[in-house]
């Protein structure tokens, strides 16, 4: 076995140019794959980190309250009792926060825009400070009533700065319109598409705007110790909360603000709970991750085909050049299986050499780009959910790409290897070329 | 002329060809290479197969070496009819019973002298590393290459390469060694050395040698010369008779 490895290794070494070209191609494909996966994973990680801090818990118990059939508000009432039930039903729970939900026209002196409102008790939201980078103002100021946190893009559009006042105008639960004047307390750096949709204000201000009682909020965000438990917790709550006397809406994997039309069409009135997970709430922005993942897979398949053809061609050439050697080895007693193994080793080592160097190269590029803190244009920010490019290279993904490319390359080399092994020794030995 | 038969005391021939026909198909044309060849070779013989180009020497050696199959007739090696053996069994027969020495040496270019000689032993998987080393080094000493163990074939002269090939052919201690024009690519002195080496091993180890050659001087070392012409055996004679016949042939021309 060692001798076969040695033959394979030395044959690769003796054809330096060919080995470097093909190994380089394999390395290039692997490197590209590592970079793409790093980017995709980076976007996903950023999205999840940002979104699970700013707009959703791992699991959310939210709901709609309807005074009349056609008029709904994103409100859950009788929160203390519900919180108690959730504490009992979800032992996987790490912590839980109340998050007000609303939808409002934000009007400045010169402009206006429609925004989703997030009600926060900033003193309880430790993750908030980590997820948002403030450009102006102080996060602590959101503890005061009638304050507002905007994103840079929104502030620019509304032409406001910290200290300016804007008016929020929303329909209340009773169907009338209400307005509240709020002061811009902080302006945060953009975080992708989220920056054009969400803004934040204290829960008390949101309640005032919607004329809600103190025991009502928009949603309870449940943060679990392990995100792998999300499906189980969600399924359990879908089953248990109706048993505990709550009316629960059928699962609809969309963010709450996309459900108003559906909810308003339904004939019921009163309170209905809506149980969602973080993926449901950010489904409107995860298309970029899915598209990038699709692109990565598509590119991988295409590149694998190109590499496979390259490897097969190279092995054909190698086998053609070494036909006499194959004949000699067969003549002196090498079984066909060993001939196959010899060429498989060659392809395997070439692929391993290529994929390992490619992975290292890809890793170096990712680390380099991370260190460079490259700020992307706004159009790209929308897709990558961050101001800067962030590459999160997962060791499992790198190992996976090394394995897949090495495996596929070795697999395609089976064809020429089998054909080489099937040659009659005498034919092989007298081969000219 | 004396028709030589068995020179050995052994009863059973190690190689037996009976009415062997081999025809090659080149496109639509069928080219006969052997036309009913019958030959018995006994253990310990040192036989030369002689004949002009195209007489069937290489084809006969290929059939005996189980690297090719006959169109018809029986090729028996070490008591086994090769036609009844599977590809795997034929490979095993080559590995354990036959050693090959090729005209162009056919060494594995990326392996060292030592590794080339050791290779058949690795395929056999019979000996442990220490025994393998001992066997390889003994042979390399015998062929005078024990100082060149780490050299690659391209760092050796033609004669040295052929001696590596001889060592590789003998390292498994085969019953039969086939050599196709083993001296053709060597100068006369080196060729003579190679034949002397083969002869010595034949005498010491009792290994059967069948080699093809054009060279009258090389033929001189054989116990018997089997002369082929047009795919048939012309006769089986002594080296002296072969010399005479060649001289007469040359005069005739």
From TrEMBL, chain A:
Membrane topology annotation: Multi-pass membrane protein
Membrane keyword on record: yes
Signal peptide segment: none
Main location: membrane
Superkingdom to which the source organism belongs: Bacteria
Annotated Gene Ontology cellular component terms: plasma membrane protein complex
ABC3 transporter permease C-terminal domain: residues covered: 299-425
Subcellular location: Cell membrane
InterPro entries: ABC3_permease_C, Lipoprotein-release_system
Record's protein name: ABC transporter permease
Organism whose genome encodes this protein: Archangium violaceum Cb vi76
């Amino acid at each position: 076995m060692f001798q076969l490895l040695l033959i394979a290794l030395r044959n690769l070494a003796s054809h330096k140019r060919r080995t470097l070209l093909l190994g380089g191609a394999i390395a290039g494909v692997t490197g590209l794959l590592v970079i793409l996966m790093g980017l995709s994973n980076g976007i996903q990680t950023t999205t999840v980190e940002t979104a699970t801090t700013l707009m959703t818990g791992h699991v959310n118990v939210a709901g709609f309250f309807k005074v009349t059939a056609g008029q709904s508000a994103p409100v859950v009432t009788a929160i203390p009792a519900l919180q108690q039930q959730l504490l009992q039903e979800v032992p996987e729970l790490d912590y839980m926060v109340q998050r007000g939900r609303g939808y409002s026209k934000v009007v400045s002196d010169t402009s206006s825009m429609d925004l989703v409102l997030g009600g926060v008790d900033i003193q309880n939201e430790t993750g908030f400070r980590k997820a948002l980078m403030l450009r102006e103002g102080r996060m602590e100021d959101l503890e005061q009533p009638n304050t507002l946190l905007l994103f840079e893009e929104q502030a620019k559009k509304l032409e406001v700065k910290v200290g300016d006042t804007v008016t929020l105008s929303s329909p209340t639960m009773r169907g009338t319109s209400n307005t509240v004047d709020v002061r811009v307390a902080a302006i945060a750096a953009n975080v992708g598409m989220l920056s054009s949709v969400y803004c934040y204000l204290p829960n008390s201000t949101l309640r005032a705007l919607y004329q809600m009682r103190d025991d009502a909020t928009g949603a309870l965000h449940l943060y679990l110790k392990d995100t792998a438990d999300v499906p189980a917790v969600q399924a359990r709550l879908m089953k248990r909360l109706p048993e505990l006397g709550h009316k629960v809406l059928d699962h609809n994997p969309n963010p709450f603000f996309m459900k108003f039309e559906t909810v308003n069409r339904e004939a019921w009135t009163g309170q209905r709970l809506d149980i969602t997970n973080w993926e449901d709430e950010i489904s409107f922005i995860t298309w970029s991750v899915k598209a990038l993942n699709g692109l990565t897979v598509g590119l991988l398949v295409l590149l694998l085909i190109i590499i496979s053809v390259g490897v097969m061609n190279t092995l054909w050439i190698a086998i053609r050049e070494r036909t006499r050697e194959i004949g000699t080895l067969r003549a002196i007693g090498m079984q066909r299986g060993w001939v196959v193994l010899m060429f498989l080793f060659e392809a395997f080592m070439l692929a391993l050499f290529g994929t390992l160097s490619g992975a290292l190269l890809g890793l170096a590029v990712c680390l380099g780009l991370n260190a460079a803190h490259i700020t992307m244009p706004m159009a790209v920010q929308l897709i990558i959910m961050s101001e800067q490019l962030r590459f999160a290279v997962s060791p499992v993904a790198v190992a996976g790409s090394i394995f897949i490319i090495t495996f596929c390359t070795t697999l395609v080399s089976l064809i020429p290897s089998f054909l080489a092994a099937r040659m009659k020794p005498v034919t092989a030995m007298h081969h000219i070329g | 002329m004396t028709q030589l038969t068995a020179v050995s005391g052994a009863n059973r021939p190690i190689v037996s060809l009976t009415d062997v026909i081999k025809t090659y198909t080149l496109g639509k044309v069928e080219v006969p290479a052997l036309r009913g060849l019958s030959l018995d070779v006994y253990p310990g013989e040192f036989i030369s197969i002689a004949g002009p180009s195209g007489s069937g020497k290489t084809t006969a050696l290929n059939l005996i070496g189980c690297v090719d199959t006959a169109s018809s007739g029986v090729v028996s090696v070490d008591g086994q009819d090769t036609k009844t053996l599977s590809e795997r069994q034929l490979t095993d027969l080559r590995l354990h019973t036959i050693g090959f020495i090729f005209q162009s040496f056919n060494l594995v270019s990326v392996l060292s002298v030592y590794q080339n000689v050791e290779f058949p032993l690795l395929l056999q998987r019979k000996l442990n590393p220490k025994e393998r080393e001992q066997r390889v080094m003994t042979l390399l000493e015998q062929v005078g290459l024990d100082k060149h163990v780490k050299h690659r074939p391209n760092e050796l002269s033609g004669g040295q390469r052929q001696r590596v090939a001889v060592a590789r052919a003998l390292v498994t201690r085969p019953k039969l060694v086939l050599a196709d024009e083993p001296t053709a690519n060597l100068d006369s002195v080196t060729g003579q050395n190679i034949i002397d080496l083969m002869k010595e091993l034949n005498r010491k180890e009792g290994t059967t040698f069948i080699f093809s050659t054009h060279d009258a001087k090389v033929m001189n070392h054989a116990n018997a010369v089997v002369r082929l012409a047009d795919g048939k055996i012309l006769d089986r004679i002594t080296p002296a008779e072969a010399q005479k016949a060649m001289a007469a042939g040359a005069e005739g021309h």
